[in-house]
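Workshop exercise sheet. Pairs work together: one partner reads the sequence aloud, the other fills in the structure field after running the prediction. Swap roles for the next sheet.
Pair: D.N. / O.F.
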Amino acid sequence: MLKSNIHFARKIAHLIHSLASTMVIPRGQVLSGTELAREIKNNLKNDVANLKRKYPGVCPKLAIVQVGGREDSNVYIRMKIQAAAAVGAEAEHIKLPNTATQDHVLQELRKLNEDSKVHGIIVQMPMDSVNDIDSHLITDSVAPSKDVDGLHTINEGRLAIGDLTGFLPCTPVGVLELIKKSGAQLEGADAVVLGRSKIVGTPVAELLKWHNATVTVCHSKTRNLKEKCQQADILVVAIGRPQFVQADWVKPGAVVIDCGINSIPDSTKKSGQKLVGDVAYDETKEVAAHITPVPGGVGPMTVAMLIKNTVLSAERSAGNGNVQWNLTPLPLKLLNPVPSDIEIARSQTPKDISVLAEEIGLLPSEVSQYGSKKAKISLSVLSRLKDSPNGKYVVVTAMTPTPFGEGKSTTMMGLVQALSTRLRKNIFATMRQPSQGPTFGIKGGAAGGGYSQVIPMEDMNLHLTGDIHAITAANNLLAAQLDARIFHEATQKDQALYDRLVPKIKGIRRFSKIQLRRLERLGIDKTDPDSLTEVERSRFARLDIDPENVIWTRVLDINDRYLREITVGQSPTEKGITRKTGFMISVASEIMAILALANDLRDFKERLARMVVAFDRKGNPVTADDLGVTGALLVLLKDVVEPTLLQTLEGSPVLVHAGPFANIAHGSNSILADKIALKLVGADGIVVTEAGFASEIGGEKFFNIKCRQSGLVPNAAVLVTTIRALKMHGGGSPVTPGAPLPSEYTHENLQLLKAGLPNAVRHINNVNKHGVPVVVAINNHTNDTKAEIQLVIDELKKAGAYDVVLSRHWALGGEGADDLAKAVARAVEEPSTFQFLYSLDLPLKTKIETIAKEMYGAAEVKYNPTVDRKLKQYEEQGFGNLPICMAKTHLSLTGNPAIKGAPLGFTLDVKDVSASIGAGFIIPSTGEITKIPGLPTRPAIYDIDLNIETGEIEGLF
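Structure field:
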């Protein structure tokens, strides 16, 4: 039986051999790289046209860096530039001299890496320099996201492990496309790669392997080289020796890809030279089924794939806001009872901020790291993604605050964590930077709490990236210049003052740019300082500031009650020129409000220039630009305009930027942070931001000031409430810090709870009046009962809430906010009917009264004579079309902090009014608003220390 089987097998084998010898195997089919490259470029031309239609202003751009002037390099560069132009892309040739040093090349690459308009960067090799340059260091200095040559170690590493999402090297991927064009079966094929160079051989072998070929890599040390080549179904030759592979090395019917290009003598040619490959072409094409010529084979494909990678890079860059992030959540280690905030924060190991930045689609050039856990984000993101769609926009507000603290920040963090890690959406939180004052006072920080926090929380609540300190410096520079100007005008005559303001430097007198702007405002159409008349010189030089009508104050980011009112100019050197003034806390500076409301750097500068700091003796406003300080302020603040990237405990991205007071300013984080986040999350993502205090203060200002100035439309709102706070608004007993809670807050009390519900209902109505669906989040506490929770849910749904959800994010993180996240995800899909509460064309008083009646429940508004006079003056000065930023206690819907609940029919007294012209709003004050808090008898200072053994901060929350 065994013998008969063997005999049968031999007959079959003989039959197959006979058939093979009589079969006609196609020979010498030329694989034209020129033709295939033309097809690819035609397709790319369509891709580029579609890209430009989808993202107007975006054009794929390749930067080619050349060191020296080798003629062969010049030929290749011209080919690349022509290929880019043929598809509608741009190519820039950066030619460095042959004296260029390594540092010179690295500096050029850094600029290109940071240029958002450049999508691909290549360094033409070899570099022809008289200096030693490490080519590996140079290729690794190109940003991986722009490494269209595919030579960066990161892109090489991705290919090595089968991750083909990075840029693939151009020649190897061109080889692969040629093999595919031949129709050869890659899967299971025996492939031999002759050559192991970093640029061709090794990556070709990797590509073939990941396309399921069985790959053998051969090189000059390989034994039985000819026999190994004869076994190849696919033979790729990149050995660098002219006509090295002969016809008898090639398996009949194989696909041969010749990557070589060599110059050999040829007397028949005019140049005396001809180009040949590494394969003896004329003989081998009689054996091979398909073979690439030289030239016209792999070479044109290399250029085509380079342009293809550049277009791909531009598409990725332009459409970055449309892709699902590859965000890695950080697991929580939940404990019960829940530890302190700082213990929880320290128990989590944050992602390196560069990793998070890459996960959310930021380019390395857009990220300036401050250590490994925080980074500034460049405004160039907005330019790069300007044509990308925005995500959905959600604002978190709250009911009227109580001493319990309703947990708005921690609810926001829990929601973001749930949307990100549970629903797997692209999610950003954008929030204010907290002031140091409350951190060392009594309120504490603003990084969230429990298992729903921003980390690192110590950085968040202390210096962060120094924005508040820079604003303090800028604010006080302006104050110093203002007082100095008052002094100099009081102690100098007109001509001396003019000569010092416009001095001769090396015999030449010129106006600075900012002085020319002042001349223009004065209607003086002259640019030669010597041509001004005596009257014109006096008008230019003398601001004539009224010391009794200076409204600009100094600031400090510390609670210091003794700076509320001070006298400046007491030194004998000030010659008796004294005046009363005071300090505010730094976040109350108008510069902070401007930072939060600026739409771009130009807008920021123009707002700084418009800041009214005083009035002259005729009642005319004096601005920062009049004092010549605008440019200097911008220099101090140049880094402040960039938001800071942090993360939640579960690794979701957070942008922290600006921190304006919600009492005397609008109390929201920056428009710039929101705009960057909305672009990064893409059309299906969500940005969750915050509004200061409750809906009638921060919420109303968010809608009518921030949204009006940004042009952004909110899709939904989250209203944070607690059962304890509702009980207090229903008439519950006052609470004292450190004392046991009265029993109504720790035991079920439905009657008290029901009496407090009108406060939450008012806030729901306030949001609904702006046409925004509102989801109520009940921030859960241990003593809340099922009956109390159900009562709140039932009653607030009846009151017009889109949904009412219990949230346990403080104890459980994102898991505890799962239901809240689902409700918000549904709410943002509702059709938008957003509207402003009032028109800017209305008189100032009408706008004030609209807010008081519609948001607070007031029956009337009263103004004292001073307020009447100022409002009239503002309208006469052209400020009547500004929105209103009410300064009111946050502890009550009324102007009286002691009145709880939701009263109706009361009178609101406007006791003063001021104007923030740079920020762009009028501020009516309904009571005494402390602009710089004081330290309590026992501030948090007593508990804060630095452990000198471990270097850890102790006692901070």
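Discussion prompt: The two ends are 87 Å apart (CA to CA). What would you look at next?
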